[in-house]
Design a protein that fits this description.
alpha/beta, 11 helices, globular, binds 3-methyl-2-oxobutanoic acid
Length: about 290
């Protein structure tokens, strides 16, 4: 099957596409086709989200909050992440045109040393992940370089980093004001230089996220609560299906409303990301 080159906003259905890989993600970023990422924690949802056209699945450590009922992601273990990564990978095993699979390194599994990060990343890669995600900037740069040099693709994560919620004083917007924005920019450029090929930007001002997206040519930004100017978007699956233990963040849209079912809701999310109608910038007044 020939590689598809659908124009922006007209992504092919997964049955017509090749499995998503790093060159394809780079190509999407270069052509301006938005990348639709969604979290998944089990095999069935992974297969359904894939059939709905999601480009990247993230086994997020949000699993701790949405599946385990934990108060934050701090309590999530590497074993939990391994278990859910393996489940999601099984859901993608026999599908055509599989999404790119990213798994979160949980709190405490990469902070000690680069060697600890490599050992933890190896567990997730052997469970079926194709890329690992880790939170923070500055000290993480050399860890990212160490992993990338050893053949492990890395997604970085800046802005609101939920694993450090206690240090940040809550789930607050980050990168506000000139000094904070300059620091975030410096960290993002260093992470790109270290080889990170995706960068999640969570709860940062839309103008800052858009400016970083323009500047980072070799790294695709994936926004969550960061406006529509990023190269892609990510949401927590349960949030966009309207399923919450607590109040949903205000940037979330419930795609189940008016949809014909879960696959249709996820397909609507993918369409809205691709055509730029999600997110709604009015909901990002920070
Ligand atoms: O764990 C997660 O779901 C995440 C996303 C919110 C980006 O990190």
């Amino acid at each position: 099957m020939a590689e598809t080159t659908a124009p922006y906003g007209a992504a092919p259905p997964p049955s017509a596409r090749k499995s998503v890989n790093l060159p394809r993600l780079a190509d999407m970023r270069a052509r301006g086709e938005k990348i639709a990422m969604l979290t998944a924690y089990d095999a069935t949802f992974a297969a359904v989200a894939n059939a709905a056209g999601v480009d990247c699945l993230l086994v997020g450590d949000s699993v701790g909050m949405v599946c385990q009922g934990l108060p934050s992601t701090v309590g999530v273990s590497l074993e939990t992440m391994r278990h859910h990564t393996e489940s999601v990978a099984r859901g993608l095993q026999r599908v055509q045109g599989a999404a790119w699979l990213v798994a979160d390194l949980p709190f405490g599994s990469y902070q000690q040393s680069r060697e600890q990060a490599l050992a933890s990343a190896t567990v997730l890669m052997q469970a079926g992940a194709q890329m690992v995600k880790l939170e923070g900037g500055g000290w993480t740069t050399e860890t990212v370089r160490f992993l990338v040099e050893r053949g492990i693709p890395v997604c970085a994560h800046l802005g609101l980093t939920p694993q450090t919620v206690h240090a940040l004083g809550g789930y607050r917007v980050q990168g506000k004001g000139d000094a904070a924005a300059a620091l975030l920019r410096e960290q993002a450029l260093a992470l790109q230089d270290a080889g990170a090929t995706l960068l999640v930007l969570e709860m940062v001002p839309a103008a800052l996220a858009a400016a970083l997206t323009r500047e980072l040519a070799g790294c695709a930004t994936i926004g969550i609560g960061a406006g529509r100017g990023t190269a892609g978007q990510v949401l927590v699956l349960h949030d966009m299906l309207g399923m919450h233990l607590a109040k949903a963040p205000r940037f979330v849209r419930n795609f189940m409303e008016g949809s014909g079912g879960i696959q249709a809701a996820i397909a609507a999310y993918v369409r809205a990301v691709k055509d730029g109608s999600f997110p709604d910038d009015a909901l990002h007044a920070w």
